[in-house]
Structures are given as C-alpha cells and as structure tokens.
Amino acid sequence: MTVLILTSEEDVTADMVVAKLHKTGVPVMRLDPADLPGKAVLSAGYSHGDFKGHLSVNGHVLSIGGLRSVWVRRPGEPAAHAPHPSPWLTAETRQALFGLLYSGSPRWMNHPRNADQARLKPWQLRVAHLSGFAVPPTLITTSPRLARQFAAEHENVVVKSASGPPPGDPALALPTTLIGPDTDFSGVAAGPALLQRYVPKHADIRLTCVGTRLFAARKVAEPGQVDGRYGDTGHAWEAVPVPERVGKSVYEYVALAGLAYAAFDFAEEDGIWWFLECNQSGQFGFVELETGQPISEAVALWLSQREADHRVPQFR
Amino acid sequence: MTVLILTSEEDVTADMVVAKLHKTGVPVMRLDPADLPGKAVLSAGYSHGDFKGHLSVNGHVLSIGGLRSVWVRRPGEPAAHAPHPSPWLTAETRQALFGLLYSGSPRWMNHPRNADQARLKPWQLRVAHLSGFAVPPTLITTSPRLARQFAAEHENVVVKSASGPPPGDPALALPTTLIGPDTDFSGVAAGPALLQRYVPKHADIRLTCVGTRLFAARKVAEPGQVDGRYGDTGHAWEAVPVPERVGKSVYEYVALAGLAYAAFDFAEEDGIWWFLECNQSGQFGFVELETGQPISEAVALWLSQREADHRVPQFR
C-alpha cells in the first residue's frame, strides 16, 4: 500500500515527510502532475462494473488498488512540462489524473474538492463561527458607505486581501495594514475590501492540525505589531498547549470543512485566541524547525495509516 | 424568499425558467458575476457569532437570510466587465461573492464544489458503476501499448475527449470518432486518450433529472451513427418512460455526486441503456422544445421550494 505525494520537484517540506515515511518502510511515489504525460504514464480501465488503474513514474508502477493515501502538496499544473503545453492538454491531463485518483478510494490530505472550498476566506469565518471560535468582527464589501461605517464603528481596523497578494513576478508583498476611520474608502467600489477589527495582540498563534493531532506554537508580538509574517521581531515560535475549548472548535472546523490537514492562525489577546484564518495547505516547516514539534512525522503517520478517514468521504 | 440566478445576460433557457418563476410569484434576482463590482454591490458582515449579508443588483436588494436557492446557470467570470479587469480582481471578487453565498444556507442547483467534481469524466464512469448503470468498457491512458491492446480486444472503438473540445474562437468541433484496431496509437503518449467500446445503438437517450423528477427522451439513430450531437438524421426527440432500474440508478448517482440537476446521455442497444456521460449543467431547452416535457417548470418548482435538500449538504 503506497503513499502518493503530488508535489513539484523542489520541495524541502515534502523531503522531510518522505524521509519519515522511508523510516516506517511504507512505499512512497512522488509525482509532479506537470510531468504527465512524459516521465509519468497512467491508465484507468472501466470494464464490467469494475475499475482498474495504474500510474507509473520513472518505471515504478503503482496500482490504484494499492494506493493508501494521497498527499496534495504543491502539485504542478498537469502537462506543464510537456513539449507542447496548451490549456487543452492541461484540461485533458487533469481529467485523466484526477479522474483516476478520484475513482480509487485513498485517504486524501486534503481532497482537492474540499481544499477548493476551504480557500474561501469569508466562508472560513462562517465555519469558524459555527465551530465556536472567537472571530473578530469582519466586513467584506464593495460598498464605500458600509466600509466607512464599519471603520467608524470599530475605530482600529485592518484591511487585507481575501485571495492573497496579486500574482506576478517579482511577487508583491501585501501585508495586513492598519487604517484609520478617516481613510478614503471610495476605491472599495472598484474591488471588494476585507476589513477586520484590529486585535491588539500579545502574540501570534499557529495551530497545525494533522488528523486528530494538534500542534500549537506561540510567538510574542511587539506592541502595535500588525502582520506577523513580515519583519523580524527577534521572538521565536515556542510550543504551547492547546486550550480545551479551542481544541474542540478545531475538531468541529475540520469536520465541517472535510480537512485532514489545516493550519490555523490566531491573534492572542488576554488569553483569547481570535480566529484569523485557516490555511488548508499552510506551511509547517518553519514551526517544526523552531519548536521541535514532530509535525512532519505526524503527517507521515497519517499518510501511512490504513484505515479510511470517515471525515473525508469519497463521493460527496 | 428569493431565487438567485447566476447567469450571463443572453440566456434563453434562463429566460424560460424566469418566466415560470414569475408565474409562481416567487421573487427572482438575476446576477452575472461579471457585473460585480459595478452593476452589483455586495456586503458580508461577520460579527458576534452571527452573519449578515446582502447583494444588490440595479438597486434591488437581497438579504442572504432571504435567499431561498441559487441556480448556477452559465455565470460569467467575476469582475470580467470591470473597467480594469485583472486575474487578481477576479480572484478577490470570487472570494467575496462565493464566500457570501456559501455562508448562507440556500439550496444549490448545483453546488459549485460538487459541480467541479462531477465534471471529471473518468470519475463519472466509476460513480455510474457504483450506481448500477451499464457502462461500455472504457480506457483512459497515455500508454500507446495499452490503447492498442484495448482497440484489438474490442475491435470497434470510439475515441473522444474527456474535457471537451479545445478552447478557441471559432470553436473546433470534436465529434466522437470510430477508429479501427490498425490505428496508429503512438500519439497517445503525448496526451491522454479516452477509448470506449463502440455501442451499435438504436437510439440516443437523454434523461434529465431535476430534483426527484425524471424526464427521458429518445431519438432514433441511423445505423452506424456515432455522435448524435452532429448532423441531422431527420429524427426528433420523443418522450419515453424511464425503466424502473434506470431510475433507481439515477437517484443513486445524483445522491453520490450531490447534484440537484443532471443530464444523462445513454446509447440504447436492444433495450439496454448504456451510460455515456452525466453533464451536471447539460442543456434542456432543445428537449423541452421537441418533446413538450415541462423541464423548465420542474427547475422553477425545485428552485422555489422552501425545504432544504438534504442531498446537498451545506458544509461538506
């Protein structure tokens, strides 16, 4: 029973997990969808009510019946490395590869269908509500009037992007930014803005959920600090216990969202962990490095388990 | 309680359904996501464990709490009509619009997450197996050797695209094509091929499923005809009853796939309905026109019902 890792070639975090999997003796296949067709060959046959499929990479053959789990970790675009790439070849290759994998019954970390849904930030806030997390008041709008009203009501407000920074090379940094009530909000009409009440936090919290295992880490924030991802404050991540109530909410959230892996970001203020976001493919290498928490080992163990994960149903 | 239709402006089929909805007196809002931001304004507020949202189009305001159902019918790309469109503006607007709609609890025809999954043709074949349909032996492969072997075994084989014809303007027709065992299969290595045993059909069957209502139509095929979508044989679509066994499989399929609407294509041979594909957004206007089956009315009724559809869960 093999673990399939869909990843691009240069991926240090995947290397960490692969090393752990090798230790457990579980066979591993690594595939960059960009290498299909080419280095990789696939076949899926549907006959007489049955299904048989296989995938081979560099001559190593994997039968889909022998597929234990799939880790979707930074896969390339299907057929991107083809001699004559095209949107149509990508579409056809995506159909073949994911059609094959969806036809089997591996455990997914995470199922692409649930991952897509989990990327919607406003939906995250709603699921966070339903899971019992504390969520800072938030508004997403294209109405300058409502944006102005929200900023006036909450005084200290941050603005951030819902989908992430604009694509481009070089990548543009777009830190979460504190704005005042006197800001000119007229531009909101041209593109939706996400406004959130500023949390005067004492620390950033990163909580990584791997199946049922939780790893929380805390990094002290400088007074008035807004976006912990930018700038070095000299503080390091330190492992902290997970409050029971937060743990309960995390399990509720990943069950509602159908996720086997999730990285939660919180802002800690007077002991309250304010939910900021949940990244279904959030990095964990930096946390493991600073705290020594065995996250890559937990990922490897989850992937190597045999039993089906009933939280991630196969067909719906 | 309003019905929201996500559609581009020129859409005759949507017009048919809107006319039926007007008759029932149910309020309807029509939105092309391409018109957001611009003609449309949205706002989603997450505060104190609660969620409030609204959407307004041309001054008509819809509260998300008053949203009954959403019909995803040919929506344009979010922000496509903006004065300065960009991939980032589209990504941000998609987050805002679908984040808002996912945060409510409307009934979906169909939920975009399930729709995306349902487009995978190889997965359709697997779900068809599991639902008890007869499925012609099919192979999807990038291996010329296996393609050759499949063609030799089944003698009469058709080749078709999994994702549809290549995008482009003018659109390229790509009919399902009969090929012989002497075909040169070497090109299969450059892009996956979908091969299927040819069914010497007596008729094409289109079965439209709207909630729990089924509408089957049959069109006589000329001997040796391969792809019923191209060329006029002079035969028309005629309403036919749904065999009990097929109906059972249809209900099983839409339950597994989480679909409220689905258009099934079958090839009829000696009374057997061979499953070819299930299009979750398949057209129904042409069938209604020729058979008089009240499909647009059924869609309007489904959209105007109040009760939640437990087959399409909100969060997973």
Question: What's the SSE blueprint?
Answer:
2 copies of one chain form a homodimer.
Chain A: E1 2-6, H1 12-24, E2 28-31, E3 40-47, E4 50-57, E5 60-63, E6 67-72, H2 87-103, E7 107-109, H3 112-118, H4 121-130, E8 138-141, H5 144-154, E9 157-160, E10 177-179, E11 193-197, E12 203-210, E13 213-220, E14 238-240, H6 244-257, E15 261-269, E16 272-279, H7 285-291, H8 295-304
Parallel strand pairs in A: 1-2, 1-6, 6-7
Antiparallel strand pairs in A: 3-4, 4-5, 8-11, 9-10, 9-11, 12-13, 12-15, 13-14, 15-16
Helix pairs in contact in A: 1-8
Organism (chains A, B): Streptomyces capitiformicae
Domain MvdD-like pre-ATP grasp (chains A, B): 2-103
InterPro entries (chains A, B): MvdD-like_ATPgrasp
What would CATH call the homologous superfamily of the largest domain in chain A? Answer: ATP-grasp fold, B domain
Strands of chain A, total number = 16
CATH class of the largest domain in chain A, named Alpha Beta
The helix-strand sequence of chain A is EHEEEEEHEHHEHEEEEEEHEEHH
What strand line-up does the widest sheet of chain A have?
A: 14-13-12-15-16
Oligomer category:
homodimer
Question: Main sheet of chain A, how many strands, which sense, barrel?
Answer: 5 strands, antiparallel
**Rg over CA atoms of chain A:** 22 Å
Proportion in β-strands of chain A:
25-35%
Integer count of domains of chain A: 3
Briefly summarize what is shown.
By secondary structure, the first copy, chain A, is of the alpha+beta class.
